[in-house]
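Quick one:
INPUT:
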């Protein structure tokens, strides 16, 4: 990559196609090449930060090395990481009332650790929310449990591992949980407060890079409850089923898969039954 000044610019139809094909190949994310203003906005930002002069040159890098640095940066540039604590709150209420008692009845947390997997974890807000719920449920039951967070974006995984959030981020967390699971950082007196997830949750979490469309067969993970939320919308119908099947394969019998409330799958993943809106149970 050269150091010449980046030029903002329009992206032609052929270049759009090459860029969306590359990101699809690497992550399954399906972007219509006609979404030119979205592509131009994200790609121009990418050119600025990567020091590549223009989109033609970026495409050349992709052609020379379709899985190299330019390709990885493209995935980073085109992924969307919107998330929040206790997003789609109904799933957490369901966990407390139904999901956790059901998986514990199957031996999770007792004979073996109970595992919660946030399969497209973004900053970790989903993972830590689930951790707060499990900790509350398990505290007087002496449960053993772990958290696993995975994502296709290396950058967001670094952020998830830091587990540091701004004042606005923590607003959806119930007050008593904030007191218990957040540590306020002592910055300059006039600086905005920042909050770090407490070690009792962080110490239970493993974070790792995965592409949900291409999960390594040797991946040592079997979850009792897997969150696969607000990521399927970025895949085409075939890849949605593939990603859901890949995750379902790594769920314990009697365990659950949660999808986003707006992400209806065309059919339940193999071996799973829809038991409530956006909640599947493994037979
Ligand atoms: C919109 S966020 C959703 C975060 C969280 N699950 C939630 O519901 O709030 C989507 C996340 O999916 C990740 N992602 C996209 N494609 C992926 C893939 N093929 N494998 C794993 N993660 C992927 C993105 O990097 C992003 O962090």
């Amino acid at each position: 990559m050269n150091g010449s000044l980046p030029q903002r610019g329009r992206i032609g139809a052929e270049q759009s196609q090459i860029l969306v094909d590359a990101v699809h190949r690497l992550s399954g994310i399906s972007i219509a090449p006609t979404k030119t203003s979205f592509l131009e906005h994200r790609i121009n930002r990418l050119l600025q930060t990567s020091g590549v002069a223009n989109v033609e040159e970026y495409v050349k890098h992709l052609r020379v090395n379709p899985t190299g640095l330019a390709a990885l940066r493209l995935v980073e540039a085109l992924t969307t990481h919107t998330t929040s604590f206790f997003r789609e709150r109904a799933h957490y209420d369901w966990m407390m009332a139904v999901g956790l008692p059901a998986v514990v009845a199957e031996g999770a947390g007792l004979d073996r650790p109970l595992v919660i997997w946030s399969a497209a974890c973004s900053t970790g807000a989903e993972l830590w929310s689930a951790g707060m719920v499990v900790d509350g449920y398990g505290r007087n039951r002496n449960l053993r449990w772990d958290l696993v967070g995975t994502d296709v974006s290396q950058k967001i995984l670094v952020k998830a591992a830091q587990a540091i959030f701004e004042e606005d981020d923590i607003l959806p967390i119930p007050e008593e949980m904030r007191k218990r699971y957040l540590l306020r950082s002592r910055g300059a007196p006039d600086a905005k407060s920042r909050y770090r997830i407490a070690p009792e949750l962080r110490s239970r979490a493993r974070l790792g890079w995965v592409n949900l469309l291409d999960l390594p067969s040797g991946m040592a993970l079997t979850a009792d409850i897997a969150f696969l939320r607000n990521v399927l919308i970025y895949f085409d119908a075939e890849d949605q089923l593939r990603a859901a099947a890949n995750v379902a394969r790594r769920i314990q019998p009697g365990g659950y898969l949660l999808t986003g409330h707006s992400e209806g799958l065309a059919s339940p993943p193999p071996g799973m039954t829809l038991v409530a809106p956006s909640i599947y149970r493994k037979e």
